[in-house]
Amino acid sequence: MSQSLKPLIETCVPRDDVRSGNFAAVDFAARLEQVVTDPGSYADYGLPERFFSLTYPTNGMKRLLTGVFGRLSGQDVAGAENPVLRFQTSFGGGKTHGLIAAYHVARGYRPGPEFFDALFDEELLPADMGVSAVVGEQLDPVNGVELSGEVAYTLWGAIGAQLGPDAWAVVAESDAARTPPGTGTIKKMLGGRPTVIIVDEVAHYLRTLATSGSEDVRSLARALPAFFKSLFEVAAEKGSGLVVVITLATEKDAYGAETDQVATLLESTVGEASSVLARQEAVLVPASDHEIAAILRRRLFESIDDAAASEAGAAYQALYEHLVASGESLPAGAGQPATYGATVAAAYPFHPELVRVLDSRIATIPTFQRARGALRLLAATIGFLWAEPIGTVMINVADLPLTSDKVLYELTERLGKERFRQPAEVDIAGPRAHAAEIDNARFASKPFAARAATCVFLHSLEQVSTVGAGRGDYLLGSLRPDDTPEVYDEALNS
Ligand SMILES: Nc1ncnc2c1ncn2[C@@H]1O[C@H](COP(=O)(O)OP(=O)(O)O)[C@@H](O)[C@H]1O
Ligand SMILES: [Mg+2]
To answer: Structure pTM?
Structure first.
């Protein structure tokens, strides 16, 4: 059918930490607090050059950076009319990653035009900007938190401390009195400098305050709306030079009630603070479904051979054309092989079917956490495939090595699905599994049964009523350009 595709170990170079299985970025959670306090020992995120080289410029991120910095530099670009931007998605969707990008730009790094809308002019950015980046989890209303040498007990105190000694001097008493500063004090705190105020995980902070055993702390929860109202009012003033960015998780996550509360607060206060402009708070989504493959590629690989990607696209296109011509019906767009072939090339070395299964099906399991879960699983997969190369030409659903303990852990214990480990071990993974017996007996040890069973296993993990893989699902998730559907049918019927 096609000329055989080259093994991935010849066409792609994984990033060092991925290849060694030694992820410095612990967990693939981006941590803003660490970027601010200890960037040197958090190189992937803390050092801007490295950070942007690992970052795929999603539309959401471009809109965030263009909006924030367009406003601060007075450019007439999309989003610049918004004094408050909200970055919202589920856990692991890239909120903090976007905030870190904004932080680095505010601190003076220039990532290049790739990270902004086309009309944006980096040259116009002010040389000196104020920036404060506070994480809800880091604030401590009882013991205080040390920031730039000051101990702050409140959100406004933390912001002031980070903006510098002059700002702290203005707001220190409001912090000590646990009372939000008014608009005049906030403006004084900004000192006329263009400023970005970033608050990550504000719902978490609100929960801490509201559920405290101390009445004093609970009263801070009631003061928070007043502070935000003043802050947004200042931001909305013409020429204020202030932009506020906050993140909220989507409601199905933890802190649902607080998230609702903050969302309502934002909608009402931003609305009140700015009757002039119709819509002053923009809600941006860090990454959409079709961008996940690009994020995975950029984050996990140092380089990917473009020619190999095109060859893979062409080979899979030919495979699906052949299947469609012989009457198979394929899900997820693969029934239009011409366009789907281009999708394969763009996602290479990940098969788009794997990305689909992870992002829209396995991601229905709340503990998976979207980009983060996919990154963890695929990093473990790459570590294994590079340590014990078996000639893999594309990483599809059936190529997930369940024989790797790390990979299996990500799909079972990690997702609260311990009960799936044993069936995986008995039926699918390893030389003694049922699948290996079939492969040995029928397919001269070629792993068709193991591949088909891996595919079925992945689909059985989903949390939706239609669990299980249909014929189209396992053909799309298992078949390689040199395979025929019949062997997979035979494997599954054995
Ligand atoms: N545009 C992107 N480019 C590269 N990696 C990204 C991008 N967006 C998110 N990530 C990575 O995905 C993972 C989850 O993102 P994170 O910002 O921690 O999510 P959230 O804050 O929404 O829970 C992190 O490892 C992060 O670095
Ligand atoms: Mg986060």
So the answer is: 0.90
